[in-house]
Amino acid sequence: MPNDIFKPADYVIAPPATATLPVEGSDQLFPVNRVFCIGRNYAAHAVEMGHDPDREPPFFFFKSPSNLTSDGTFPYPSRTEDVHHEIELVVALSKGGTDIPEDQALDHVWGYGVGLDMTRRDLQGQAKKMGRPWEVGKSFEKSGPCGPLVPAAKIGHPDSGAVTLDVNGERRQTGDLNQMIWKIPEMISELSRFFDLQPGDVIMTGTPSGVGPVNRGDRLVGHVEGVGTLTVDVV
Ligand code: MN
After folding, report:
1. Using one digit for the tens of pLDDT, what is the confidence trace for 202-234?
2. What is the pLDDT of residues 124-182, one digit of tens each?
3. What is the residue range of 26's domain?
4. Exposed/middle/buried for 96, CB within 10 Å: 0-12, 13-18, 19+?
5. Which of 36, 100, 165, 200 has its CA 20 to 30 A from that of 93?
6. Does residue 190 form part of some domain?
7. Which pTM was predicted?
8. CA of 212 relative to ligand 1 center, distance in Å
9. Are 51 and 27 a contacting pair, CB within 8 Å?
10. What are 56-80's pLDDT values in tens digits?
């Protein structure tokens, strides 16, 4: 069929909805394209997972855009008995590019949020042992609860500030954005050498130490200083 008579509405099935994140203080939504996650970006977390941060640099993996949710709940997932919380700063890109220099990287950021990289740790552990991909451990439904994004135009570009996670009022994770191994400009620049970054791409920037299991009925309260607070109930 020639392009000039192709009607984009002619899908053979209904197209999936665009994944979105809410924007603080606004009715507008941020459309999510891809979700890049960074592994072992805080030295103390790398150590608690049994790795040497001086010998193994951080790396990337993906979640699916539709894994991100913002309804304040996390349904305990299937096929696991060990789901862990990982509190993370979320970076949302307004501009794409390839080979982005570090000194221009922050110009590509639309805003920031607080997110959880929920992880089926038992399944991730099996995958690591067998040299298999991590998707069953990381990229399952509703595995990325996120709070509303706040524009960089309002809060600037945070490069330090406390990152914490409380479970039922007890502090479990504590770190500081200034402890990231790859800083935000570095991760954007590095990603843009592997991928053609696009507007709507989101980066989950890695978790500080203190990851641990959650149970049904738990209330998780995550906070990134200068960005916001995320409250999630495990249901
Ligand atoms: Mn993570």
Report:
1. 999 999 999 999 999 999 999 999 999 999 999
2. 999 999 999 999 999 999 999 999 999 999 999 999 999 999 999 999 999 999 999 99
3. 20-234
4. middle
5. 165
6. yes
7. 0.95
8. 12
9. no
10. 899 999 999 999 999 999 999 999 9
Ligand 1 center from residue 180 Cα (angstroms): 12
| 3-state DSSP assignment of residue 104 | helix
Query: What CATH number does residue 168 fall under?
Result: 3.90.850.10
Say whether 4 sits in a helix, a strand or coil: helix
| Domain assignment of residue 11, yes or no | no
Distance 78 CA to ligand 1 centre (A): 19
**171 vs 169: CA distance, rounded Å:** 7
* Alpha helices per DSSP H over the chain: 43-48, 102-105, 121-130, 135-138, 152-155, 184-194
Give the C-alpha separation, 16 to 66, whole Å.
10
Match 């990289």 to its residue by tokens.
117
Q: How many angstroms separate the alpha carbon of residue 207 from the centre of ligand 1?
A: 5
96 alpha carbon – ligand 1 mean position (Å): 23
Q: Which of 210, 211, 222, 209 is nearest to 179 (CA)?
A: 209
Residue type, 34: R
User: Do the beta carbons of residue 108 and residue 93 sit within 8 Å?
Assistant: yes
Report the number of distinct structural domains present in the chain.
1
Residue 3 lies in a domain: no
